[in-house]
Amino acid sequence: MSSLGGQAADNLRFIRQAMERSATFTAVPGAGGAVMGVVALAAAAVASRQATADRWLGVWLAAAVAAAAVGLVTMARKARQAGLSLSGANARRFAVGLAAPCVAGAALTYALWATRTHSVMPAAWLLLYGAGVLTGGAFSVPAVRVMGALFMVLGLAAVATPPGWGNLWLGAGFGALQVGFGIYIARHHGG
User: Fold this and answer.
1) Residues in CB range of 16: below 8 A, 6 or more apart
2) According to the model, what pLDDT value does residue 16 have?
3) How far apart are CA 81 and CA 60, in angstroms?
4) Which helix (H) or strand (E) holds 121?
């Protein structure tokens, strides 16, 4: 009889794992994403008026910290309201997919700052954030993957255009694109 109970437990474990693998991570915050975009639009306006490259960088780094805080808080709130776990397999996969390129972006930002190569930062940030969103989005709703791919397109545009256009591309990506997809996700995938 105990072997029947063990087999049933194994079957339930298999079913639970299969369901978790097939589920998507839906705690991506739509409204929070839109707020993150507004932060970036404000940063683009303020950064464009800075007298030095270091002050420009300071504005964007402050905006990144503020936007990350908004994203984390609204993601936790959306997950709690939906009864989702942020420690589940898909949430962890999403986080790792997003975090790895963001860590690379932080390291590259330091290296570019140390070599006084600020003009490359917008392209690097857009490309790496896009890669992270695209990779993490493999475990989320399709709109997240599309947004990641579009961030990468904007990063490529930043590579192909004059360095003075950096704020334009950052505002378009981290601002307008984030606002648009945030509204879409809020309307079609909740909060």
Assistant:
1) none
2) 55
3) 31
4) helix 121-136
Q: Return the closest-CA partner of residue 81 out of 39, 142, 31, 38.
A: 31
Question: Could you tell me the two tokens for 28?
Answer: 């991506």
Task: For 15-48, give the secondary structure using H, E and C.
Answer: HHHHHHHHCCECCCCHHHHHHHHHHHHHHHHHHC
- Residue 129 sits in which domain range? 2-189
**Model's pTM, two decimal places?**
0.82
Q: Which residues contact 154 (CB under 8 A, 6 or more apart)?
A: 126, 130, 169, 172, 173, 177
Query: How far is Cα 150 from Cα 156, in angstroms, rounded to an integer?
Result: 10
Q: Of 141, 175, 170, which Cα lies nearest the Cα of 34?
A: 175
Average pLDDT score over residue span 173-177: 96
Confidence of residue 179 (pLDDT cuts 50, 70, 90): very high
Q: What are phi and psi of 25, to 5 degrees?
A: -80, 110
The total domain count for the chain is: 1
CA within 13 Å, CB half, 43: 30
Q: Identify residue 90 by its one-letter amino acid code.
A: N
pLDDT by residue (tens digit) across 54-83?
A: 999 999 999 999 999 998 898 888 878 877
Going by the DSSP 8-state scheme, the letter that residue 140 receives in this structure is B
